[in-house]
Design goal:
This protein is mainly alpha-helical and 604 residues long. It has a single domain, classed as Sodium/glucose cotransporter. It is built from 25 helices and four strands. The strands form two sheets. The protein has a two-stranded antiparallel sheet. The chain has a two-stranded parallel ribbon with strand order 3-4. Strand 1 and strand 2 form a beta hairpin. The longest helix is centred in the first third of the chain and has 48 residues.
Length: 604
């Protein structure tokens, strides 16, 4: 298909504004690495939170949601809705602690918390593993999704008259070559403007992406073939619209998600706290930690995490879900259900709006790609290059190398995309390869006995298990399909890291005292250290934080379901859900007020 001139105009305006933002912030970003990676630690909560949710609004997410809705109805989204439990932990337990730590990256945190050569080894390994290896896999699956979008929107497209190319023995399709242009574009504006440019651009990109998908959902549901919500509900089985899985049985065809008891328990009881996943790390790591550490103060860090969690689970998914449901009606026999989302775009949108949606997908793709480039580069420069290769250099040197590494990471991710076959395959691999690590990432804040060996073994053990399976070794339990395999991986990893903890020496007392005085974590897990430092006033007791966490989980799930019921014209259910959400919000407000969080955010 060919886009009209007005469609291309939308795309051009988006690109021009993005470049203008990058140019505006380029000089500021070049001052030092704190500016380049953390925007001078002076960002407001709404900028940070919106930047985080824009990062998670990638080109692959609407396609993945379409795929799970096609297979399992709306309830299929529990494959990622379960991660809310961990995200809300970050809001109340970890956001302020991250800002208080004063580190540049969550990998640098390792040598704030632990001591000696094991801590140094752990920092270096994590910098390369997360910043390079896992990061390029994530960037590759985002790129793969964008390739699908271009391929469906522009069937038979060629570049310089060719449908494909060969580079370094790798097959590159014309759609992927076009996506390569956007990768170069995002690499250039990321290396120019640093985190502040990425964050401000994220706000612009998120506005475009949300506006575009909401318009698409309205047009799709009200298209003549659907006839509004009533027509949509009449065209699909009733169970397709259920919000919760059916436990203990498998679904057949399009319907509600059917989970075995083991699979449901893995999602709700294991995955959210045990596995590392970008944007949903237990303890709030990765680019989420990076954003919280860029906040101007602790309150901005916490409110940024809260806004991100609400927007991530309540605002983003419903336009995608509605379009996915429409695609089931319009294309019931589609071989690749992911393509349904893009096909709805092609078939229901008039000229002008189609270009806006294409620009929205470009925005979703570039915001995620830019954030991961900046975050991955921060590990490779701050925690590997500066720490082990070239310590003691000038800030200009580190910013210069950061810009080079940003571009190189983008190129590597593009090449890895040519070897990737499935988004879902990569997604499950990332979660399995970190299963069991999450508990250490949580406990290191609240138990003094966790040491560098604990985290090192918890990082390497699940990777080793995944490698065994990839090489065909039949490890009982590990070869089970995802997510049931999480039980075995988490159990083995936990046994390994607990043994490593008690078979090795504790972290040096002076290091623990320094960490305790700086971060002031609460809870009884620091009792021996607290006795040595009686003048330190620790953070809140854990019980009030746990109650806020429960209220936060209720708040977000009830808003999520309430909005869904409103859209599907189930008004009584919507009223009940939103009433519970209001009660949870009131409890959180009262508790935060009681503990001093009602002061203006501009004040320390």
């Amino acid at each position: 298909m060919n886009l009209a001139f007005i469609d291309w105009l939308s795309v051009i305006i988006y690109l021009v504004v993005t470049v203008a933002i990058a140019i505006y912030f380029a000089k500021r970003a070049g001052k030092n690495t704190t500016e380049f990676f953390l925007s001078g630690r002076n960002m407001k909560w709404y900028v940070i939170g919106t930047s985080m949710v824009a990062t998670t609004f990638a080109a692959d997410t609407p396609l993945l949601v379409t795929e799970v809705v096609a297979a399992d109805g709306i309830a299929g989204n529990w494959i990622w809705w379960n991660m809310l439990f961990g995200a809300m932990l970050t809001v109340f337990f970890f956001a302020r602690l991250w800002r208080r730590s004063g580190v540049l990256t969550d990998v640098e945190f390792v040598e704030l918390r632990y001591d000696g050569k094991p801590a140094a080894w752990l920092r270096g390994i994590k910098a390369v593993y997360f910043g390079l290896l896992l990061n390029v896999i994530i960037l590759a699956w985002v790129t793969l999704a964008m390739e699908t979008i271009v391929n469906v929107l522009f069937p038979g497209v060629t570049v310089f008259g060719r449908e494909s190319f060969t580079l370094l023995g790798m097959h590159i399709s014309a759609p992927l070559a076009i996506v390569g242009f956007f990768i170069i574009f995002v690499a250039l504006y990321s290396l120019a403007s640093g985190l502040i440019g990425v964050a401000v651009t994220d706000m612009f990109q998120f506005a475009i992406a949300m506006t575009g998908t909401i318009i698409l959902a309205v047009y799709a549901v009200n298209s003549p073939e659907i006839g509004g919500i009533a027509g949509l509900k009449a065209a699909l089985p009733e169970e397709t619209f259920r919000f919760v899985p059916t436990i203990g049985q498998a679904a057949e065809g399009i319907g509600v998600l059917g989970l075995s008891v083991a699979a449901f328990t893995a999602y709700i009881g294991v995955q959210w706290w045990s596995s590392w996943y970008p944007g949903a790390e237990p303890g709030g790591g990765g680019y989420v930690a990076q954003r919280m550490m860029s906040a101007k103060d602790e309150k901005n860090a916490m409110f940024a995490a809260l806004w991100f969690t609400i927007a991530h689970y309540c605002l983003r998914p419903w336009p995608w879900i509605m379009v996915a449901l429409v695609s089931l009606v319009l294309y019931p026999d589609l071989a690749d259900s992911r393509e349904g989302f893009v096909m709805v775009m092609k078939d229901v949108l008039p000229a002008g709006l189609l270009g806006l949606l294409f620009a929205a997908f470009i925005a979703a793709f570039t915001s995620t790609f830019a954030a991961h480039l900046n975050w991955g580069t921060s590990y490779l420069i701050n925690d590997f290059w500066r720490r082990f290769i070239k310590p003691g250099q000038s800030e200009k040197h580190y910013v210069f190398i950061s810009r080079i590494v940003t571009f190189v990471l983008a190129v590597i991710a593009f090449l890895v995309t040519t070897q990737l076959e499935s988004i879902k395959q990569a997604w499950g691999l990332v979660i399995t390869a970190s299963a069991g690590l999450g508990l250490v990432l949580i406990l290191r804040w609240y138990w003094w006995r966790v040491n560098a060996w604990s985290e090192l073994t918890a990082t390497l053990a699940p990777i080793f298990l995944v490698i065994l399976v990839l090489f065909g070794v039949n490890v009982p339990g590990i070869t089970e399909p995802f997510p049931v395999n999480l039980f075995s991986v988490v159990a083995i990893t936990t046994v390994v890291w607990v043994l490593a903890t008690f078979l090795t020496k504790p972290t040096d007392a002076a290091k623990l005292d320094h960490f305790y005085r700086k971060v002031r974590p609460g809870g009884g897990g620091w009792k021996p250290v607290a006795l040595r430092n009686p003048a330190v006033e620790p953070d809140s007791a854990l019980l009030p934080l746990a109650l806020d966490w429960i209220a936060g989980v209720i708040l977000v799930y009830m808003v999520l379901f309430g909005v869904g019921h409103l859209l599907l014209a189930n008004y009584l259910s919507a009223f009940g859900c939103l009433t519970l959400a209001a009660a949870a919000a009131y409890y959180i407000y009262r508790d935060l007020t009681r503990r001093g969080f009602d002061t203006p955010l501009e004040q320390e």
